[in-house]
Amino acid sequence: MAPKLYKMNLSPPVRAVLLCSKIANIDMELIDMDLMAGEQMTQDYLKLNPQHTVPLLDDDGFILADSHAIMQYLIETYAEDSPLLPKDIKSRATLNHRLHFDTGILFARGLAITKLIIFESVKEVPEKYIALLDEAIGIVEKFLTQNEWIAGDQMTIADLSCVTNVTTFSYFIPITEERFPKISAWIKRFEDVPHFKEINEGVNDYINVIEAAMNRD
């Protein structure tokens, strides 16, 4: 039985897991959620995930939240030889650092802006929030001056997490070759990754939700 993934495509972490499963050839049963309608707050879903977030994995009763944890679990369980999750201790340590950066800085700063717009009806995001997100994306640029990929010389799950966030939050911080040449080249490399363009169309869903929230009375 294939693992079940609860998802909503506008979510960057969801798209990271979808990319991971496609690249590693892991079959999953996909279950769409409508967070805007509050489906994540139902009692049944809260029993599975008290954090009421997506993505959420259900692998024959084993429940796991958080995209980073899910991707590591999927690779170690179903595709242990995948280069998406290096086995070398130092390479894995670098990967873990980038994942913590993604959770605590990059995604967190983009999420803070998202919540202001959707839940607090902010029409103009305060400059301090934009500056913090800009700084986070600047750090990604610096990571990519060291190697072609976020955590080394090959693509890993850290790239999947960071690229879905950077392309989503580029709505607030435009990615140009002048300002971010390394990120621009990195995103261009991703365009050759199978299923990337298709899966990352979820960026448009995110933009639609943000613009609808900013334009409502």
From TrEMBL:
InterPro entries: Glutathione-S-Trfase_C-like, Glutathione-S-Trfase_C_sf, Glutathione_S-Trfase, Glutathione_S-Trfase_N, GST_C, Thioredoxin-like_sf
Molecular functions per Gene Ontology: glutathione transferase activity
GST C-terminal domain residues: 88-217
GO biological process: glutathione metabolic process
Residues covered by the GST N-terminal domain: 1-82
Pfam families hit by this protein: GST_C, GST_N_3
Cross-referenced CDD domains: GST_C_Delta_Epsilon, GST_N_Delta_Epsilon
PANTHER family: GLUTATHIONE S TRANSFERASE D10, ISOFORM A-RELATED
Binding partners and assembly: Homodimer.
Name of protein: Glutathione S-transferase 1-like isoform X2
Protein source organism: Diabrotica virgifera virgifera (western corn rootworm)
Lineage: Eukaryota, Metazoa, Ecdysozoa, Arthropoda, Hexapoda
